[in-house]
Amino acid sequence: MEKWVGIPIFFSLINMEIITDKVKTIFSGLLEEKAIALVDITYKRQGPNTVLMLIVDKKGGVTVDECAWVSQKLGDALDKDNIITEKYVLEVSSPGLDRPLKAKKDFERAKGELVRINTYGPIEDKREHTGKVFSCDEEFVTIEVRDTNAVTKIPLNKIAKACLIVDF
Is the pLDDT of residue 116 over 90? Predict the structure, then answer.
């Protein structure tokens, strides 16, 4: 009997991946209309509910009205095509001022911006690096260190956490 316990979870994970892939496909069509980028997507159970969470952004930031527009358009498409067959909650939000940086494209978008990067191990004897994004390629993000103006190259695969710093 215990061997069946894992099967619903396995099918649930597959279902979640299929749904997130379909949402990405639908969202790519919305991108052209408003130049809004999908930053992150999560589809999971949260208590008794199933929640589809999207974080969206665009150059200059995304407004509340644009989040509502994405929610309306995406919700209509999901319901029309019956992509999610169970009851679900759709949440669309911006990444906030201190948005996380996860992929190369995030660092490219943050070029010239002040960031904080925490690494899995020391790089140049430090695990925390603060500076302006100078460049990013397939392997490294290069920052100009805040206090010294020195240049530090940080391997993308060594980044534990990175985010924009809002300097008021």
Answer: yes
